[in-house]
């Protein structure tokens, strides 16, 4: 059964319609990739799924339960179940690496710091930052900060991890360390929805890939279909341009 | 010069120092209590949703009103309100209420500007992790905003030292009032108010130098 | 508090008060213009002048910024006659406010001058702009954009500051409030109406200045 379902979702910034009838589902333990040109609405989907933007129409279901975006309690519940990692990491600049990872579980969820701390340290070790737990974000490279952000998301024990162009702001030589971390999560069976421009990576890691343009899902299929034998003209154009580089 | 020597007797100097202390206390109180209330107003203005709309409106009207009414007029309003209420309070209390009202309005704007100076992505990250508004402000935003808030807040404190001179109008025995007393005792206006100008300068100048140093230090420090 | 508001007795005085408000605006405008002349000259001296001139300007600015305007005017009004200089209360207030404004506006403008961007001037030089063209097309538009918001802000503060003219018997808005108060004894009614007039007048000024700033200099300005 699909764990996360978007059913005919539409959304707008003011009068500008940015999502127009989106249907996407992510199965339990599945990784789905979202690709498409800038402004196609990929990141907007993640904003809807984290309650930062209210959809105008359609339904989001998590584990079969529909989310009512008019009820703050249901948005809070959605945010408990889906964690997001941002393009710009968005680490709290005033907190150390360990504090960044621990603050939401302890202060928001009210868990005891002594219970959370081993989990946080374990996650930071897993993303390869065991020796940086007392550093501040501005003392780390972009790749290191992004790995902290991933650990911060994971420490909330989300059912779904949303990744929003997590390598787009990184220097080229730092991209692979972050991709390795995500690859590890996929192997562990994490349910993920990934927006990315790293086509090779999306192809390798995703069970299914959605190509988006102008707020619509143009084509949804296996990586092999999307990248090697796209059915739609738009997809062929886009993939053709990307792969030529 | 001999008139100046006549004025600076032991008791007059004590009187002058007490006036300085009162002026300082008035501004400090206005800034400390005004800072607390002002922070509350600034937070109130950042709330969202229809439930807190009256709160936002009230905070907006309060800050705009007290920032757009002259000190002297606010002072007279407070003075007459206390007079007609029949409460027997000292003029010093009336002065304190006035400076707290005005301080609250101005510091609310300074704090609000500080909170808004923190990058939106910090707010978003906290929001998606289910922080409440107060948790976001307490754990994430204020720790990053205080270096932006402190220099203008300190600047306002120094400004207040001079603005509070108007409290002398209702008889608060602060520095300016001391000058008027000297003048009434027969010392020339030049010497009486000259001494008072120097006393204000001695109060304000070191603080403004300190403020400039503070601004420089905070400006170059990291956000934490 | 069992006070009944009786605005009926005070309403007929509103046109009289509005004329006072007009005088307040005039005082603020004249003092601001005078202050701009002084401030521009002093800022130029501070930026380009020689050593001793800069010291002179510094002494002037530091003294006026660190002492209260009220006591400065006391000094002008009560102490200058001892030296044979007689100023009317209106002139004393205007002179005091102008000198005070000059000091603050020096500081504001100097910060504006210093915000000239080296990279833009280098670009202009590389493009073959003459010195005058650099000033006309690069420096002035930038400085105007940076300076307009804080200057507007100071103008509003000065409008509020004119209320202290009442203490010297000038019949501007606050002065007229005191007059009506001593005739009718409806203190709260009078001063609350006067407060609202100040709010409306300064709000209107803020809106006009913000519109002008956006239109003329593309300066980013908020009213509330």
Automatic annotation (TrEMBL), chain A:
ABC transporter domain sequence ranges: 4-239
Subcellular location per the Swiss-Prot or TrEMBL entry: Cell membrane
Main location: membrane
SUPFAM superfamilies in the record: P-loop containing nucleoside triphosphate hydrolases (SSF52540)
PROSITE patterns, sorted: ABC_TRANSPORTER_1 (PS00211), ABC_TRANSPORTER_2 (PS50893)
Entry GO CC: plasma membrane
Membrane topology recorded in Swiss-Prot or TrEMBL: Peripheral membrane protein
Pfam family, one: ABC_tran
Keyword Iron (UniProt): no
Record keywords: Amino-acid transport, ATP-binding, Cell membrane, Membrane, Nucleotide-binding, Transport
GO MF annotation, one: ATP binding
Keyword Transport: yes
Protein name in UniProt: Peptide ABC transporter ATP-binding protein
Species per Swiss-Prot/TrEMBL record: Marinibacterium profundimaris
Lineage: Bacteria, Pseudomonadati, Pseudomonadota, Alphaproteobacteria, Rhodobacterales
From TrEMBL, chain B:
GO function terms (MF aspect): transmembrane transporter activity
Its membrane topology: Multi-pass membrane protein
Main localization category: membrane
Annotated GO biological process: amino acid transport
Subcellular compartments: Cell inner membrane; Cell membrane
Keyword hit for Cell membrane: yes
GO CC terms in record: ATP-binding cassette (ABC) transporter complex
SUPFAM superfamilies attached to this UniProt entry: MetI-like
Keywords carried by this UniProt record: Cell membrane, Membrane, Transmembrane, Transmembrane helix, Transport
Family listed: Belongs to the binding-protein-dependent transport system permease family. HisMQ subfamily.
Protein name (Swiss-Prot/TrEMBL): Amino acid ABC transporter
Organism for this UniProt entry: Marinibacterium profundimaris
TrEMBL record, chain C:
GO biological process: amino acid transport
Protein name in UniProt: ABC transporter
PROSITE patterns documented for this protein: ABC_TM1
Keyword Lipid biosynthesis: no
Similarity field: Belongs to the binding-protein-dependent transport system permease family. HisMQ subfamily.
InterPro entries: AA_ABC_transptr_permease_3TM (IPR010065), ArtM/GltK/GlnP/TcyL/YhdX-like (IPR043429), MetI-like (IPR000515), MetI-like_sf (IPR035906)
Cellular component terms (Gene Ontology): ATP-binding cassette (ABC) transporter complex
Transmembrane region(s): 20-45, 57-79, 85-106, 154-170, 190-212
Organism, as annotated: Marinibacterium profundimaris
NCBIfam families: HEQRo_perm_3TM (TIGR01726)
Residue ranges annotated for the ABC transmembrane type-1 domain, each copy included: 21-209
Keyword Transmembrane helix: yes
Pfam families registered for this protein in UniProt: BPD_transp_1
Subcellular compartments: Cell inner membrane; Cell membrane
């Amino acid at each position: 059964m699909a764990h996360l379902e978007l059913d005919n979702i539409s959304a707008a910034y003011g009068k500008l319609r940015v999502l127009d009838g989106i249907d996407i589902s992510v199965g339990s333990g599945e990784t789905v990739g979202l690709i498409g040109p800038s402004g196609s609405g990929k990141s907007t989907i993640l904003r809807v799924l984290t309650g930062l933007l209210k959809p105008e129409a359609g339904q989001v279901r998590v584990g079969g339960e529909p989310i009512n975006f008019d009820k703050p309690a249901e948005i809070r519940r959605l945010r408990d179940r889906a964690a997001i990692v941002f393009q710009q990491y968005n680490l709290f600049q005033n907190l150390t690496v360990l504090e960044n990872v621990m603050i939401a579980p302890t202060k928001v969820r009210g868990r005891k710091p002594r219970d959370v701390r081993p989990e946080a340290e374990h996650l930071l070790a897993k993303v390869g930052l065991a020796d940086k737990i007392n550093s501040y974000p501005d003392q780390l490279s972009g790749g290191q900060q992004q790995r902290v952000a991933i650990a911060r998301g994971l420490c909330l024990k989300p059912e779904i991890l949303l990744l929003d162009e997590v390598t787009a702001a990184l220097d080229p030589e730092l991209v692979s360390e972050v991709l390795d971390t995500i690859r590890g999560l996929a192997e562990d069976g994490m349910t993920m929805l990934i927006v990315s421009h790293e086509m090779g990576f999306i192809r390798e890691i995703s069970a299914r890939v959605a190509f988006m343009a102008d707020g619509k899902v143009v084509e949804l299929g296996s990586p092999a279909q999307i990248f090697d034998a796209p059915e739609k003209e738009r997809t062929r154009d886009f993939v053709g341009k990307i792969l030529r580089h | 010069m001999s008139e100046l020597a006549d004025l600076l007797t032991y008791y007059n100097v004590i009187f002058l120092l007490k006036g300085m202390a009162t002026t300082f206390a008035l501004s400090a109180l206005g800034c400390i209590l005004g800072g607390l209330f002002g922070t509350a107003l600034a937070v109130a203005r950042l709330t969202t949703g229809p439930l807190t709309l009256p709160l936002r409106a009230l905070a907006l009207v309060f800050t705009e009103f007290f920032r757009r009414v002259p000190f002297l007029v606010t002072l007279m309003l407070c003075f007459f309100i206390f007079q007609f209420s029949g409460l027997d309070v000292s003029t010093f209390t009336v002065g304190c209420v006035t400076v707290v009202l005005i301080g609250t309005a101005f510091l609310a704007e300074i704090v609000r500007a500080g909170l808004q100076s923190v990058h939106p992505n910090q707010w978003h990250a906290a929001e998606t992790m289910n922080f409440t508004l107060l948790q976001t402000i307490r754990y994430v935003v204020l720790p990053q905003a205080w270096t932006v808030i402190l220099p203008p807040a300190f600047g306002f404190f120094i400004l207040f030292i001079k603005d509070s001179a108007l409290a002398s109008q209702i008889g608060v025995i602060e520095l300016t009032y001391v000058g008027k007393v000297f003048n009434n005792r027969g010392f020339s206006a030049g010497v009486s108010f000259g001494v008072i100008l120097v006393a204000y300068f001695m109060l304000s100048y070191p603080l403004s130098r300190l403020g400039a140093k503070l601004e420089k230090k905070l400006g170059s420090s990291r956000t934490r | 508090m069992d006070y009944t508001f009786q605005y009926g007795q005070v309403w007929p005085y509103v046109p009289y008060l509005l004329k006072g408000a007009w005088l307040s605006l005039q005082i603020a405008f004249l003092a601001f213009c005078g202050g701009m002349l002084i401030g521009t000259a002093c800022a130029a001296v501070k930026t380009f002048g020689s050593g001793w001139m800069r010291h002179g300007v510094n002494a002037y600015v530091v003294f006026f910024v660190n002492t209260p305007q009220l006591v400065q005017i006391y000094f002008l009004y009560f102490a200058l006659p001892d030296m044979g200089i007689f100023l009317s209360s209106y002139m004393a207030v205007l002179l005091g406010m102008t000198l005070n404004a000059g000091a603050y506006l020096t500081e504001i403008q100097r910060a504006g001058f210093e915000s000239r961007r080296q990279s833009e001037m280098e670009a202009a030089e590389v493009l073959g702009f003459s010195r005058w063209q650099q000033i006309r097309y690069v420096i002035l538009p930038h400085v105007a954009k940076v300076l307009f918001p804080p200057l507007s802000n100071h103008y509003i503060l000065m409008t509020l500051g004119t209320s202290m003219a009442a203490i010297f018997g000038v019949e501007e808005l606050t002065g007229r409030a005191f007059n009506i108060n001593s005739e009718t004894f409806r203190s709260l009614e009078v001063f609350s109406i006067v407060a609202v007039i100040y709010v409306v007048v300064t709000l209107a000024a803020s809106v006009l200045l913000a519109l002008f700033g956006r239109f003329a200099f593309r300066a980013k300005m908020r009213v509330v």
